[in-house]
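EI: anyone free to look at a 240-residue chain?
SC: sure, send it
EI:
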Amino acid sequence: MEIYVDEAGRWPLVGPLHVWLVLILKQIHKKKFKDSKQLSSSQREKLFEKIKELEQKWSLLYSIWTVNNQEIDNLWLTKAISLAIKRGLFELLKKYYQNFLQYSLSKWLCSCDLINKFSIENLLQDDFSITNLKNLIQIISQTNPISEIRVDWKQDFWVSKDLEIKTKTIVKWDIKVHEISMASIVAKVSRDQRMVDFADKKYPQYNFKKHKWYGTREHISLIKKFWICKLHRKSFLKKI
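SC: here you go
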């Protein structure tokens, strides 16, 4: 079982960072999924809807998780991404267990393991923690171990160290690997939709829609004029 990870919103001055994780369950036609940066916004949105359809058909499962600008400021970027990946993995594995493994594991557990079954059900109701995530990984590994987590970056954000799972990293995998491209599409679309629906409408004076929340000359001049809003990443603005 391989899980693919990508993110969107690493370098903008405003808003959350979105991490998307995908688990492919069936053979699907992936060649049409290109890196999100190579697609127009309308193309990305259409492919996002296709990915939703694939999940409804149980061809794949995905999880989207975010860290907001305050968490990025408090943890700094790499630790914030690490937290988002682990939170997203916890939700993805809960979804996987609930939809695919619950019946098979209930058969696998004998009567003497009922207390363990009770513990599993309790775990699915629990909030995220590293301990709960490691316990869930151990349970799922009874039938289908995670062989590898593939991350589109030069580091794995301490996933292998903290969770004892094999990881593989490579820069620009979103161009070379279709599963990572799918992740980049969903992460990009979900973040853009959230920012347009919330940030653009609430803070029109910054003209976010034009510069896409990045540190352009226009954006920086508007920050100097209006100061910062609640969505700005203060840790990114120390030199301004």
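EI: The mean pLDDT is 83.
SC: 👍
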